[in-house]
Amino acid sequence: MSNPPPKKAIRNPGPGGAGGPPSSAGAGGGSRGGPAGNTVKFARRTSSGRYVSLSREDIDMEGELAADYTNYTVQIPPTPDNQPMMDGAEPASVAMRAEEQYVSSSLFTGGFNSVTRAHLMDKVIDSEVTHPQMAGSKGASRCAMPACDGKAMRDERGNDVDPCECRFKICRDCYLDAQKDGCVCPGCKEHYKIGEYADDDDPNDPSAGKHYLPAPGGGMNAANSKSLLARNQNGEFDHNRWLFESSGTYGYGNAFWPKGGMYDDDLDDDGGGGPGGGGGELPEQKPFKPLTRKLPMPTSIISPYRIFIVIRGFVLLFYLTWRIQNPNMEALWLWGMSIVCELWFAFSWLLDMLPKVNPVNRSTDLAVLKEKFETPSPSNPHGRSDLPGLDVFVSTADPEKEPVLTTATTILSILAADYPVEKLACYVSDDGGALLTFEAMAEAASFANIWVPFCKKHDIEPRQPDSYFSIKGDPTKGKRRSDFVKDRRKVKREFDEFKVRINGLPDSIRRRSDAFNAREDMKMLKHLRETGADPAEQPKVKKATWMADGTHWPGTWAVSAPDHAKGNHAGILQVMLKPPSPDPLYGMHDEEQLIDFSDVDIRLPMLVYMSREKRPGYDHNKKAGAMNALVRCSAVMSNGPFILNFDCDHYINNAQAIREAMCFVMDRGGERIAYIQFPQRFEGIDPSDRYANNNTVFFDGNMRALDGLQGPMYVGTGCMFRRFALYGFDPPRATEYTGWLFNKKKKVTSSSSSSPSFGRDPETDTQSLKAEDFDAELTSMLVPRRFGNSSALMASIPVAEFQARPLADHPAVRHGRPPGALTVPRPPLDPPTVAEAVSVISCWYEDKTEWGDRVGWIYGSVTEDVVSGYRMHNRGWRSVYCIPKRDAFLGTAPINLTDRLHQVLRWATGSVEIFFSRNNAFLASRRLMFLQRVAYLNVGIYPFTSIFLLVYCFIPALSLFSGFFIVQTLNVAFLCYLLTITVTLIALGVLEVKWSGIALEDWWRNEQFWLISGTSAHLYAVVQGLLKVMAGIEISFTLTAKAAVDENEDIYADLYVVKWSSLLIPPITIGMINIIAIAFAFARTVYSDNPRWGKFIGGGFFSFWVLAHLYPFAKGLMGRRGKTPTIVFVWSGLISITISLLWVAISPPEATAGGRGAGFQFP
């Protein structure tokens, strides 16, 4: 067997950062540097702004000189008017390409008490990989150095990079060694020369390397002038920021930069004047084109809706007053139970209806977005994308319950999204650390080589291959290219082969591991024979899981072992697809290619596999912990100012959905938006939606109504966040609500807040942070306490804040950034950066920090999504509900009754935890609107309705058994109240259907499942929540299984499966008792001497109301028609026996013959 590929240790950092790179490693990127103490230089900066590695002699010489001399060097940086060419540019370019290739071909591991290692992988998966961006791609030549089997360096097309004219093939490590030996080519023994092998940057291109600086102004601090340039981390004055003013940089004082400082933060809330208020005038006062519009509901619908809410509220008040004043003296116990339940129902109804009084619709203008950010202009002459970067998170935990094929197709839909490739990065969090997930992601990256260009070439929708090829109808509709049918046929065949490879991965990994483990057993046995040891005492060889390159998988093994179990494994990071080049890369016209992509950009977004470190004794905090690890990892590697998160079973159904969301955050006032929530849409739901899986009443009704207040809640997936808001910072402008009903508004800014800059935050015991407070001068004790001891993470925060600002292209835009500021290519990845990313996903990183407390996703609740959104609203941020015409994202939902109830149980348990925590809306700050506070209060209270609902569902049966009713007589007043309440309820339902756009059947299904879940899952949630609060019993939930259905299987098969659970007991009991009570009361009334039909009808009507709501539940228990479970026959027999016994217990007909002719009459 050949020796395994070498593992190179990357030195852990000193106290300056938790696993951060050396200070020089981050100097080239604006987000990767960090403050350091005694710095050690490993590179020198050339005139082009690049960094060239120093040789050992240079480093030693520098150390010797430092003792006797103090050198002061003024480096004149290049400007658009002055860009000299120097000989150092070519070696630097080649070195950077080598570093990128090394990063994308290495598997980085590390963690607690271990050195971060880079394992160079020559092979990631068994199948052949051809895309040059992918790890382990084929086609590169071998290094020509003796005794070296490394791959030669490659460019963005996968072609060999020849740093010398003699075209000597050399790998990255050998090239770095050659640089240390005087930059002499090992092939021709000549110094490396400049030629056609230099980097492709045009020295006369003003856009190359162009950086923008905020305008200097009086009284500005460093936090107000965020720049894309790297911060000066060594404490020296940054001359680069102030030396040059030219038309290329559009610096302070020239024609393209108003002297009013329009890019500073606003202090004036009504526009114009003041720092950042847009007081200066632009050279051309173009009409401002908004990116979004708010569309209020039609008055003819919303006005009657509000009126009926008021009417029904007053009717309920009068009715409850009448009920209290007129007790039923014959059955006070029944009257008392009913009045308590009705009081709670009225209170719960009010909490639900009040936030719905101001629903809104919104629209976006994608044409204006393209005009502003991707059209050539004086600030962007080449028309490069000026949109901010986006990091997409996909989380998965168990490949057995979450099929890897589903996750892989989700990744493909993200990679094919209609967004600038160089601005998009995808991160996959595998909390199970499974090799199956790792290789499935590698297969997805390989298939993306053909799928993504195919989608771009033919404008495919949806861009999830499984859904696209499952669409029924004419696939050629709307397609104009003559080669579409041929291309589609080829891609369909490739996708079928891709699915076969994915489905065969478990067997492939098992066979490979068995073969390697058998070989290890043979080697051990051979060793024992050679040493003469007793074979009976052969030590047990660990049954490892092996990767495709013949080395141990550092994550979870199929047979658990120390350091290789689900809760005990190292952190793993693999760049599956390295960052793309900044310029478009078109396919080559080659007959060997399956499809002609000569006019299609074949670049792919960056794809990263991450599995955070887990160790015994460290709480990993489930999904919230995984999301926070992704936030830190992405901040170090790509630092996209916005984050979009998905569950592994949700995919992008609308390729332009990301652009729709960007319209809101890039529009006027977008700096106050913390996140954009999309509605959840599902596929695979039965046509009747028996268990209200679509939840349209909530997503199209409640969430749309909240959009008219402070914004919708965060619901766990399909949400785009502002990274700066996730870090726990306050918005630049907020509104405080005071008064008895919080109806008085007070505008506050981050710089002129009513509370001190470091005042106490209402929601925590820590200090609140604002953009102005974050600076290199910030107290050294405060920063590690909040974010951890990573200098690279610290340096990325102000950059993310600046890049997330909207364009300051009009005086009315506040807190903006200059146009063209984000057209600069992001710096390439290097090994120290990836090593830093491994460190920030270690199990110990969050110790003694505020991650999970006020930074990132919040811990302490199974519904971490609602709590995280609440915290942002509580700090004054706003959110927006984005409903595109075409559904943005699609996912799956459990259609089985038991699975659905368990899902609702988890949500309700989280709500109970919220109610008994400091996240209760009663304790919210003054920055939360009153109606928004009511909505969050309802989130924590709604599970407790189950107690009263359970009692109320038994009241009709108790009334029928006892012969008494909740009122003493069915008089006119009671009937009028009942009629008015029912009519207003129906009217509100019809009007809500009108303004929300949902179907009446969906509204009725929601009402039915409200009762089903309220008498089962919600009731259990209250019990579990109380046990956790009072007894400290922790709650654990199993992961909801996502079924992968084959093409020939019934997609609704799971709907008819009956899975027994204790959650089914309460609804079954309610249904049986009500049926028996109706039969018993009817028989007793018929054979009574003095039949009281009024009370029977009253009790029977309410029992029928309960049974009508339980109809979907009963239908689910029956299973598939013709396959009734045995337990149903048992129940039927019990019911029949019970009714028979009750019939015998009633007086025989002969004894009541005289009363049989009694007529129907009200008492």
From TrEMBL:
Keywords: Cell wall biogenesis/degradation, Glycosyltransferase, Golgi apparatus, Membrane, Transferase, Transmembrane, Transmembrane helix
Catalytic residues of the enzyme: 431, 865
Recorded family membership: Belongs to the glycosyltransferase 2 family. Plant cellulose synthase-like D subfamily.
Compartmental location: Golgi apparatus membrane
Role: Thought to be a Golgi-localized beta-glycan synthase that polymerize the backbones of noncellulosic polysaccharides (hemicelluloses) of plant cell wall.
InterPro entries, A to Z: Cellulose_synth (IPR005150), Nucleotide-diphossugar_trans (IPR029044), Znf_RING/FYVE/PHD (IPR013083)
Membrane topology note: Multi-pass membrane protein
PANTHER family from the UniProt entry: X-BOX TRANSCRIPTION FACTOR-RELATED (PTHR13301)
TM ranges: 303-320, 332-351, 935-966, 972-991, 1063-1087, 1093-1114, 1126-1146
Entry binding sites for Mn(2+): 623, 647
Protein name: Cellulose synthase-like protein D4
Compositionally biased region (Gly residues): 14-36, 272-281
GO biological process, one term: plant-type cell wall organization or biogenesis
Basic and acidic residues bias (residue ranges): 474-485
GO cellular component: Golgi membrane
GO terms for MF: glycosyltransferase activity
Organism lineage string: Eukaryota, Viridiplantae, Streptophyta, Embryophyta, Tracheophyta
Main location (coarse class): Golgi
Residues binding UDP-alpha-D-glucose: 395, 401-402, 431, 622
Disordered, as annotated region: 1-42, 267-290, 466-485, 748-769
